[in-house]
Protein 1
Amino acid sequence: MIRIEARPEAAANMVYAAPVIAVTLTMIAGIVLFMIMGQSPGVALYTFFVEPVSTFDGVTELLVKATPLTLIGVGLSVGFRANVWNIGAEGQLTIGALAGGAVALYFYEMEGFYILPLMVLASIAGGMAWAAIPAFLRSKFNANEILTSLMLTYVGLLVLSYLIHGPMKDPDGQGFPESRLFSDSALFPVLIEDYRLHMGWLFALAAVAAVWVLFSRHVIGFQIRVIGMAPRAAAFAGFEEKKLVWLSFMIAGAASGVAGLSEVAGPLGQIVPSISPGYGFTAIIVAFLGRLHPLGILMAALLMALSYLGGENAQISLNMPNAVTGVFQGMLLFFLLGSDVLIKYRLRFGR
Amino acid sequence: MDGTDIVVSAALTIITAATPLVFAALGELVVEKSGVLNLGVEGMMVVGAIMAFATGVTTENAFLAILVGALSGALVGGLFGFLVLVLLSNQVATGLALTIFGIGLSALVGHGFVGVTFAGVPSLYIPLLTDIPIIGTILFGQDLMVYMSVAFAIGIGWFLKSTRAGLILRAVGENHDAAHAIGYPVIRVRFMAVLFGGAMAGLGGAYLSLVYTPLWVENMTAGRGWIALALVVFAAWRPGRAFFGAYLFGGITIIQLHVQGVGWAIPSQLLSMLPYLVTIIVLVVISRDSGKQRLSAPASLGKIFYAAS
Amino acid sequence: MHNFTIKKSLAALVVGGLASMGLVTQTLAAEPLKVGFIYVGPTGDHGWSYEHDQARQAMQKELGDKVITTYVESVPEGADAQRVITKLATSGHGLIFTTSFGYMNPTLKVAKRFKKVKFEHATGFKRSKNLSTYSARFYEGRYVIGHIAGRMTKSNVLGYIASFPIPEVIRGINATVIAARKVNPDVTVKVVWVNSWFDPGKEADAAKTLIDQGADIILQHTDSPAPMQTAEKRGVWAVGQASDMSKFGPNAQLTAIIDNWAPYYIERTKAVLDGTWKEKDTFGGFKSGMVKLAPYNKKMPKDVVDLAESVRIAIEQETVHPFQGPIKGQDGKIIVKDGEIIDMGQLLGMNFYVEGVVGSIPK
């Protein structure tokens, strides 16, 4: 019989040990899974976790993949701490990308140092505008933000579909739904010549730092934490819930907007019908996997990115179907989430 | 086809479109009423869809297929329940992980079932009643699962409102500490709710792969689990309104297709937005006058319960 | 499924690693050619990606141990595509097929970086020295289908389930309408856009809607067999898409347009093996076997079958072109003059409806 018993205080060592235990358990479960699939477990695990980052190229690609996840994850964490359930980051990303991309297309074939900053501002404004709708509906009409933000994601994706099949379509693109390729002045500069790692990664790091400062140094961060933990006490203390709802949505909207722009002005270099493969949703997992702590989110985003790269690798080198990746990823997440129990609780064996 | 025929036939299409949403939304509603937020509806649905289909094809027994769909949904739901209720993991993230897992698992299981056909679930036919013009087929000519969905909507409404067990479930969802203090088994109640929610999502998936479009293709749920989640919020956690919400959403989806077929010069993307926009607007109208909407959310929703003693 | 031993895989890793560092630039002659494929959907979609994978398997079977094939499925058409294509190039693949339009620019970028690797991009228009493009003239199939539908319809309304308003889809609608009105001037076509390539439920809903609005033949340019199933259930005709869907509509399926990539994949892989591969653009139809029709429904009257066959053969022999004038737009204005054939630019970038289509193109 296993019982779970609360620890008097959170175990500091377990904060770091829990993920290690989780990864170990995933490895063991992975060995079973891969053996069932008729693969050599050692090779499979190597292919999943090590091979993708065994080259410098692989490491930079990992950061490219982790960029949007980090940005959005950090942005969402603020709201999640204040019990604001924005699950529409995907839509905010899309509209941010469209707004920033529209600036890029407006300045097509023009040069100028001002183009990129304008794009970034536009993407922030776009993401915020889309996030403002659920914030407004919640603070003004009390409409639940889970529904409104999720529904607006679908609407946002249809806006993208409309624009890319219409006004934003490349006039010389034989009618295909893609925008013109952005001019050089409208592209995020790469950090290292010949690699795809781009400026967006710096934005992601900056977001991590900013939110970290917000929570550890700023009074608003304190308010958010209080409201999340004890909403009634927060109300007594005179914290304005509406203000924090707005703040949460604006931060998430801005971060998601920049994340969207960093895809279209980064590796893509144009607006396409499918900008994001669901980063807005994956980032929710990333946020909680990182325990809503900026540095934790950074680590979680890297791990999540690695699991995607590993999955592709497994398909390429081992001919494993994509479905196995999904199952394996799910297992990894289950173990990571489940093992966090060890931080606040201890397992007791026997009666 | 004349006017009434079109209306009848559109109504039938709407029933088909709404039924999977009814199942999944009602299931999630019960889960949330018990204070647990499971965002993995899509994952449970898609597992239910493949397992039901695989069973249907292998055994050619529609009833068994429906049953297996429900059971497999419950099984995957149980995995979620173990993580969030026993290991106290974060509900939001675990639910999302469940979706990833479910889609992967269903694709793995479904590999051999692509391109296979299934006869489907027979529809009811009661002589005389089904033959009544207009309402005959709508009321008495559906398949078994549609009636099940209606029965569940009524049954769950009654269960939550009028039974002792329903009261306990709500108490657990409202204030788990108080419920625990009174002596209700919080974890057990929630686990049962989660299993039920999984079974219902499984039924929703089974409806897709057995009735709606009797076939299997990967990701065939195509986001319906997410819509079901939104409908629970839309319904303010009331079964009757969840049922209405599913029909509203399904109805607008079908009507926009009809508008397209008529050939009005409205961009199809704009029409496709309608179900989402209308749901938002209706929610706003319902919620605007009062703070009741917030209050109707189970107070302990998404919070982790640990029995200190 | 391949069974890899640790030794073999490690060897592959080392080779792959060396190749990525540029130390090994050419696969050794005795080594099998590695051919990579990336698909936009899962191989289990029973549509577009499924057919490409069927062709990959056929190619593997044909060429045996001379090739090793690899595929990556469900690769999003965003920033991920370039990474996956690069990965294929660095892991020793000598020929890479990227099978969706959205991979165009990523493929071009990777092709520039890996000059020794041959690339083949489906449905795009950007080429370079080591990047070919290929696409199929599905509209030829649709032209035949238009003839059949025009003759088989009783209500004179055809229902068309469309995915996205891209030239490929619009071309298909127009080819169908032009043909149908040639044999039956009263035909109109109702189009419903589902904004998805792949959503069985929604496709079925669209089929039901069109049938409710009087369509007695369902045509689809989406991937799942759901519309075919719906047609079967409601007792109307339908035409399959991508693959033979007669299993899903044994009575309903008049025929189906089949994507048949296998001959092309075999030809191009052989060319790399022979060292004769050159950059080119292929736009294959009936003639090259890239487009095929499934066996006609037994219930189709003989004269309709004969008509369909004669049209198909005429296209194959290039005595008939589906977009030969006169072609009128929706407003009745002449777009292609009598006797002329539409120019390639207009054909490839088609963005107008011809006379007889109900509704307007989503813009």
Protein 2
Amino acid sequence: MTIDKPGTKNAKSRNTKSRNLTRRSFLETALAGGAAYVSLAHDMSAFAQAGGSIVIGHHCELTGGFSSWGYWHNKCALAAVKAINDQGGIAGRRVELVTEDTESNPATGTRKLRSLVQRNNAAFIVGSVHSGVMLASIPVATELKTVYFSSGEATEATGEKGTRYSFRTGTDTYGLAAAGAPWAFQNLGKTWTIISPDYAWGHSHYKEHKAIIEKLGGKVHDPIFVPLDAKDLVPYLTKIPQDTEVLFSVFFGALSVAFYTQAKSMGLEKTMKMYSVAGTIEAIAPADLKGAAEGVYIVENFPRMLKYKDDAFHRDYLKAIATDDVHGREAGSDKVNAKSHSWQSWENLFALKAAIEKSGWKTKKDDQGVIEALEGLEMANSLGHAQGSKLLRKEDHSGIIDCYISRVENDELHVKKTVSRTEMAQMMPVRFDLSKQPL
Amino acid sequence: MTDVVFALAINGLVWGLIIALIALGLSIIFGLLDIINVAHGDLFMLGTVGGLVIATATGSFWVAIVLVPIIAFALGLALERFVIRPTIRQAALTIVTTFGLSMMLQEGVRATYGPQPRRMAPPIGGTVPLFGIDYDIYRLFAAIFAALALAAFFVFLNRTKLGTRIRAVRHDPETATALGIPVARVCGITFALGTAMAALGGVIAAPITTVEFRTGVDILPFCFMAVVIGGLGNLQGTVAAAVLLAVMEGLVTSFANPTIARIVSLAIMSGVLLFRPHGLFAGATR
């Protein structure tokens, strides 16, 4: 809403208009207002007849270390809610999205999750992409008996720390290792070193990748864990063993930029292949790294370039979130989409829509039906699931999706290999069965 | 192994000199105003962001390295006048005030400049072989520039009229007032100098590290360690402590986990607080 200052041209114009109000203009205004009211009332009445709005909580990193990702998760969730409401809501009921900022902090995140459920009466939660927040929040969501979709990658969320209430449509460290490690082992090298932040996500990647590389007959050196507050990475980079063929880096945000910058300045890419996952370059354009990421192999969950999944759904999705189809930049700004993760904040709302409508959910008492509908939910490639067809596997509540191994070439992410969801399902057998847990 | 020890010791020295520049700003502000400036790391962050903005706009890193400290000096004058002065001499209140300032600076940059981290390309490219590793030439330049800036500051403090006034106010503000020194103005200039030094450190460090709204959060603890070990308000002690800590961390890192190196630094700080609460160096107190 804008307010014109007194004395400005607009304000004067409006004053003049008000002085010139005639019976005709009054009737025109009144009729237009009446028509708008009737239309709005009809719209609200249609939603009201279906039982009022459904409140969905969004547990999002709007500030703090993950805010460059959170911005996109928020944007995608808002766009999804708009799209759903424009199509008549969920089961005829308007969706109301309530967003709380986790501040990228697990303690704050759990407090905000309680606020979403207990103060804002959120029936379902589209949750955090921050692994620490996610892992701290799942026990709280379970205690509050509330379905919690997370998009962080620590595999524990759909493994040993998962519950009947925790779901994830995207990949985790288990899935990313399954998607990329065998190909990288065959094509990049057999002796690996993993460098990552000293935090749940990095540890989880180390554990999952080590298992696969060693199973394939490769060698994995001791991991190099970097404190989250490190500024100078040279002391850590000098620890990389000389015989390393593949340097697997797992960083995010500022540490990621620092890693690529400092590794490049030390010329590490001359003696070893650089391999990583999309999280390392989320919300960052390779062009902004000024060549530091050139040649790096990256496992993506959703190709940044439209041409590697060129269909109407992908195009319409990019249009809905105002993102360009090459670099993932936002229209009118230089922000770069955290595209390999933020799609989940869009798709999770459509997954919930499908499950709510399939189960006939009306109130919290009917949550069991939604959970059972989500377990094993098949999602077809569509605008609601623009990343592609996928399965929300019944046993471990994990998304089984297509993955892409890309390489940074001329500041663009070019896909070199697509790993289909069928291959993914074969390479990541079920390890936990959450569907047998009591509700 | 010996090569790595030397390489990491030199890298520690390089990083220590940059940190010393930032920590010196923190120390001079505490020494004169008794303010524990929790926002000092964010002033460093403003230097990194301002440096990138100006370098991008003008196409020259060298313009940024000149303009950023000048702009930061002006900002420092304004901050001292409108944020610091109303709470001065009330230590607890200044912590709250500067903490609030810190949040405002961070969120202000996040809201306007954006949350995404960025890279500033170094103005000097290339590497030199240094004890078995390819070492970034820019880092050596940054260390030399930081050392020159530190030397220039001490020359200013000891050889100019304004420097003499700053020392006089630090030593005894009441007598300085009686002698006609405009204490309030000297305090403002000192705070602005500390701000400019933090921002200058930001411009120098930007091509080595990352430019984003939280860059200053993690650098502050190391600066505080240097100030505590060097002696609160002891300027030479702060510089020496920053360099020694960074070299020591480099040396420890060559044969142990870098996290262990940081633990050693914290242990040293605890020891100093326990046995020499006024700092490691002689005459540490004001």
